[in-house]
Specification:
Layout: E1 2-7, E2 10-15, E3 19-23, E4 32-35, E5 38-43, E6 46-49, E7 57-78, E8 83-103
Antiparallel strand pairs: 1-2, 1-5, 3-8, 4-7, 5-6, 7-8
């Protein structure tokens, strides 16, 4: 059984026991959340597609931690102009563990 969910304007394919990293959500570590933005659910050979979301379907997940992603360097350079920029960025992330996919 798997599902396609939408979290933070991005879509993820998840199964029970998966660990995913999403953009930072304001939820404390250790809490369980219900994700109701389920776009597709597949159970055995049956597939249900939502328009836009599947009614009566939800994914239960646990927040493992709040962390940061890898550092990304942005570098711009203009030749013969004696000018350049170097900027770094680390995206804040929330780590989820998928506990269950429920379909009523």
């Amino acid at each position: 059984m798997y599902a396609i969910i939408e979290v933070g304007a991005k879509q993820f394919t998840v199964q029970k026991g998966d660990i995913i990293q999403v953009e930072k959500q304001e939820i404390k570590s250790g809490k369980d959340i219900d994700i109701k933005e389920v776009l597709l659910v597949s159970k055995d050979k049956k597939v249900e597609i939502g328009q836009p979301f599947v009614k009566e379907a939800k994914v239960v997940a646990t927040v493992l931690e709040q962390s940061k992603g890898p550092k990304v360097i942005s570098f711009k350079y203009k030749r013969r102009k004696n000018t350049h920029w170097k900027k770094g960025h680390r995206q804040k992330l929330t780590v989820f563990k998928i506990k269950d996919i429920e379909l009523s």
